[in-house]
Amino acid sequence: MSLSLRRSESYINGEWVKGRAEKLFQVFNPKNGSIIGEVYDLDAEDTKAAVDAAYEAFGPWSKKTAKERSALLYKWYSLILENIPELGEMLTEENGKPLAEGKGEIMYAASFLDWYSAEARRVYGETIEFPVTNRRSIIRKEPVGVAGIIVPWNFPAGMLTRKVGPALAAGCTVVVKSPEDTPYIPTALVELANRAGIPRGVLNIVSCSRSNAAGIGQLFSSDPKVSTVSFTGSCEVGKRISLELGGLAPLIVFDSADLSKVVSGTLFAKFRNCGQACISAQNFFIQEGIYDKAVEEITKLTKSLKMGDPMDSTTSIGPLINSRGLEKVERLVNDAKSKGATVICGGSRATDVGELYFQPTLLTGITEDMDILHQEVFGPVINVIKFKTEEEAIRRANDSERGLASYFYSSDISQCYRVMEALQAGLIGCNDTTVSSAETPFGGYKQSGIGREGGKYGMDEFLQIKMCAIGIDI
Ligand SMILES: NC(=O)c1ccc[n+]([C@@H]2O[C@H](COP(=O)([O-])OP(=O)(O)OC[C@H]3O[C@@H](n4cnc5c(N)ncnc54)[C@H](O)[C@@H]3O)[C@@H](O)[C@H]2O)c1
Ligand SMILES: O=CCCC(=O)O
């Protein structure tokens, strides 16, 4: 693999730096546990320099015209597209997702820069009438300042550009804290931003081990120079910061569903990135009339998936990200088994394939007391639950503190509308499970988050509204 974009240092104020201690942490290939390389481990004090640089850079950057910012974002987008083969391999190597998915994520990540380079020029203000004759208003949207951005390992490229794109478009400057399991791809993207000509101090990135993450999060949330913190990650960590969090997506199959669509939707919604997406479907509620046939078809799909080397184009299931992730999947499956769940297929580690592999699994006989019904499994496991009525399906699908994505399949148009309106989630997939794009808003209800990324809404987090009242002589 070409290594031209691989950096071990962090990027602060236009320089590649090693941090004061010049300490390193190791990055592993989840396929076989081999060490990919070592990355400098920065702490909160090192990160403070990045915050200061972003603060200094904010004035000049926010005063550039939107057209100038747009052109730089577009150049960055073009450079990413030119480097897809290298970036895709780099992502697959450290994250473990199959190579086609790795390249797909790079294109997905680039699409946010394309979209926000255009949106930069569409930050419109307005005027509103006061209830008096001698006063006028101008409502302006202005960038909030420095954004502290924290991204997860499961979509480290897509989640970075989905935040950094709108932040830079709005006129904010940024400090990114990259995820410890996948630090190379975020720094590679920042290197390309540098090559695109984004000025020094505007986009900074710090890499760190897990032990320094909390300190950096603390700095972001307490330093007065940081105006907003945008976090994507687990509910457990995010509760303390702010909020693009985990899901627990139900997928409902009604009696009238087209099963071929259910199967292709399951492949994407359940098995993409080995089930490690925030919008991964987890609990499959299947209506009694179609239950046997649907379980048969979904089982066939689950059994057909090939585990293996994610660089091999025939692989559809790669490793889990790390032993913590694997142990969580195993614990939840074992808990379900011990409480009476039936394993239709899979159900255990695939040690013959590699240390971090778990078999694609389908469980039935799921009951309320099983943790796997309520906790995000983040792995290739489907829970199947039979239901009788539409009302029961909606009640059970909504019976969760999380509300990121909900999917359902039905050929009854009235039912589609009823269910779409009744499901409590920020993203609804009706006869489809592809719910993310640069053009549309992404985010959750309830504990799954606050705010939206993507689309025209994605800029709002990085803009603040100023109302100017102007007294005039009439
Ligand atoms: N809603 C979304 O858009 C979305 C997208 C992707 C992932 N997710 C969720 O992310 C989770 C998977 O990611 P993860 O395991 O990396 O999550 P995580 O919460 O463990 O870590 C996410 C990021 O936060 C950092 N972090 C950890 N502890 C911190 C602390 N105390 N202060 C500041 N930062 C801290 C990590 O280093 C990492 O960069 C899943 O729950 C998934 O559903 C949500
Ligand atoms: O993990 C969550 C992000 C997945 C996506 O944006 O499609």
UniProtKB/TrEMBL annotation:
Listed SUPFAM superfamilies: ALDH-like
Alphabetical keyword list: Oxidoreductase
GO BP annotations, alphabetical order: gamma-aminobutyric acid catabolic process
UniProt EC number: 1.2.1.24
Domain of life according to the entry: Eukaryota
GO molecular function, one term: succinate-semialdehyde dehydrogenase (NAD+) activity
Pfam families hit by this protein: Aldedh
One GO CC term on file: mitochondrion
Pathway: Amino-acid degradation; 4-aminobutanoate degradation
Residue intervals of the Aldehyde dehydrogenase domain: 16-467
Matches recorded under InterPro entries: Ald_DH/histidinol_DH (IPR016161), Ald_DH_C (IPR016163), Ald_DH_CS_GLU (IPR029510), Ald_DH_N (IPR016162), Aldehyde_DH_dom (IPR015590), Aldehyde_DH_Superfamily (IPR050740)
Catalytic residues (UniProt): 244
Family matches, as PANTHER family: SUCCINATE-SEMIALDEHYDE DEHYDROGENASE, MITOCHONDRIAL
Family statement: Belongs to the aldehyde dehydrogenase family.
UniProt-recorded name of the protein: Succinate-semialdehyde dehydrogenase, mitochondrial
Lineage: Eukaryota, Metazoa, Spiralia, Lophotrochozoa, Bryozoa
